[in-house]
Structures are given as C-alpha cells and as structure tokens.
Amino acid sequence: MSRFFSSKFDNLTPYTPGEQPKIKDLVKLNTNESPFPPSKKAIRYAAEAAKELQLYPDPTCQALTQKAAEIWGVEADEVLITNGSDEILNFAFMAYCDEKTPAVFPDITYGFYKVFAQLLNVPYEEIPLRDDFTIDTQDYINVGKTVFIANPNAPTGIPLSLSEIEEIVKSNPNNVVVVDEAYIDFGGESAVPLTKKYDNLLVTQTFSKSRSMAGARLGLGIGSKALIQDLNTIKYSTNPYNINKMTMAAGLGALEDEAYTKRNCKTICKNRTYTKKMLRKMDFETTDSTANFIFAKHKVLSGGMIYARLREKGILVRHFDGERIKDYNRITVGTKKEMQAFLRAVSEILEENK
Fold it and tell me: Up-side HSE of residue 95: CA atoms within 13 Å toward CB?
C-alpha cells in the first residue's frame, strides 16, 4: 500500500473472487457460473445496443425495470436495477447500517457481507450456523439489527423456507431484512411475494447464475416503494449510469426468453442430483443444496488435498480455508459432460490414495 492510503482501512480484508484462469481444456467449476451461453435474444439485443455506445445509457433503466416488474409480479417503482447484486447489497449496507444500527449475518455465508461492513465501518455480528450448517431462525428473531441472509445460503446451498424468512422479517419491523436470492432459481421459494406484505424486506437477485450473464454484471432489488426510493438516493449519489447500454439490453433479452432460463435451470438441477448421488457412492457427504453448486467433503481425504489434485487434473473447484469448512469443496454444477469429467477425476484421486 502507498503511504497515502487512509488508515481507516487498516483492518480491511478485501473479498477474494473465485479464480479465473486461462488454462486450455480446463473444466471450470469454481465460481457458480452457468455452463450455458446467454439467450440468443440477449446476445442480439446487446449487439444492437453496441451501435449506440457513444450515448449515455438510460439511468432509469426504464424498459428493463418495467419488464422485471412484470416477471416478478411487482410494480416498476418497487424494482431497482443494479450493477450485479453486489451493488445493491453495498447500497443496502450504506443505507441501512451505521454505528447505531449494526449488521448481522451468519458466520458462514457470502464473504462480501463482512467486507462491506468493514469497508463502511459498520459494526457487525456473525452468528454461527448450527453444526449441520443450517441457519437457526431463532437467532434472528427480534435481533434489532439489519439482517443479511443468503437464501439458499452460500457456500452450503441450504435454504430457509418462506415461512422461516417471514418469521424473521415479521419479528424485526423496525429493521430492514435483506434476503440475497442469488441462487433461488435452482430451488427454494422466493421471498419476493412477501415484499407486498412487509415494508422492511429487501430481496436481491442476480442475472449471473440462472440467466447466464455473470460477465455482464446485472442484478436487481425488489422491495417497498420507500425502500427503493432510499436505494435510488444512494445510486444517484454514487453512479447514476450504473448499467451500460449493452448489459441493459442483454438483460431485457434474457427476461423476454424465460423459457430458455427455465430449461437451463431444470438441466442444472438434474445434473446436481446425478452428481450428488455419484459422490455419495464414493464416500462423500454433501449438504442438501438447492443452488447451482454442491458442497461436499470426503469421509477420509482432506478438502485441500482433493482440491489440489483436481486442479492438477484440469478440474477447478472452490476450496475455503475457514476452520469449519476446510474439509469441504464447493463444486459448481455444469453440463453432464463436465460433471462426468469431474467424477472421473475424483474416482482417480480416490484410487490413487487407497
């Protein structure tokens, strides 16, 4: 760091993104991307938008916002389009957390929550998951803080039921509850309908996973009109033109091709079931993930060793160093061919370590 870097960031530990290596013939199962390309309509719309890149994009994202409202069954002024769901999560930390209103989230969850809190100098509490990696909803009842919950959770993939989410939201009427639904399209039940009932609920989603647009950076938040007004205040105070023309157009194309999205999600869920079944036959334990990834550990071999050996064989998965999860690896669910290649490599590793 330079000598000019503010000391207020002395304790900041940046988020570590998943590795994006450029290795020929690599089977990349480490960052929960879709194995399928974007909708052809999304690609076509983006190409058309590229012809007008000399002009600023629409800061209101009117066409995309209106279509999103239609898809999710809400009003346009209950939707905010953002630069990935990370941006709206950042906005939520900025808008609803401060020294008087701390943040609270699980100790094992999406790593960016802790980073946002540290970056913004927000007090925060990490509540331990149960031994089986599930969230105990009672830990969040009447907690009196801004709640952040990924549902399904990451990296475990374990979901809360809609009734459990509602219990948390209902018990904290004076605090915002943020439900991060990055993986909701692969299982679980969305809390979006509850935004009509509770003015303190903000639901965030992303186009990165189910809609094959991780490289475009597009997300959204859904909540009461007042919450969206709050977040728009933050947006227009930081980056009014937060969505570029091509991404905006691609997002609209993706939403106009929901059949393609649903078909891909169905395939990924089928491949997830197949892979979990095969892993369990090879003495792996897996969580009951309803996301587009599997969280697994072997009964004997360490997670770090399996990760390293897989990488040597051209299979990249995600390994975490946290004490409670160091024996696990998170495996993105890809195509059937990719999952078969992964399983063959795992089988070879087990054979080599007999």
Answer: 26
Cis peptide preceding 102, ω within 30 of 0: no
Check: pTM over 0.90? Answer yes or no: yes
Report which DSSP code applies to 184. G
Question: How far is it, in rounded angstroms, from Cα 126 to Cα 132?
Answer: 17
- Asked if 104 and 172 touch (Cβ cutoff 8 Å), the reply is no
Last residue of a domain, one of 193, 228, 256: 256
Per DSSP, helices labelled H in 161-257 are 162-171, 225-236, 245-255
Q: Is residue 3 part of a domain?
A: no
292-326 per-position pLDDT tens digit? 999 999 999 999 999 999 999 999 999 999 999 99
Residue 47's nearest CA partner among 198, 225, 228, 245 is 245
d(CA 192, CA 73): 9
Rounded to a whole number, what is the distance in angstroms from the first to the last CA of the chain?
A: 47
How many separate domains does the chain show? 2
Q: Whole-angstrom Cα distance, residue 53 to residue 134?
A: 46
Q: Which two three-digit tokens encode residue 212?
A: 């094959």
Beta-carbon contacts of 303 under 8 Å, excluding residues fewer than 6 positions away, are 297, 319, 325, 326, 327, 328, 329
CB atoms within 10 A of CB 9: 13
Please give the residue range of the domain that contains residue 77. 40-256
65 and 142 in a single domain? The answer is yes
Q: Which residues of the chain have pLDDT under 70?
A: none
Nearest-5° angle of CA 74, CA 75, CA 79?
Answer: 85
266 with 232, same domain? no
The number of angstroms, rounded, from the C-alpha of 152 to the middle of its chain's C-alpha atoms is: 9
- Domain assignment present for 5: no
Residue closest to 68 by CA, chosen among 81, 59, 56 = 81
Q: Do 269 and 213 share a domain, yes or no?
A: no
Where does residue 205 fall: left (phi above 0), alpha (psi -120 to 50 degrees), or beta otherwise?
beta
Spatial neighbors of 324 by CB under 8 A, at least 6 apart, are 107, 108, 129
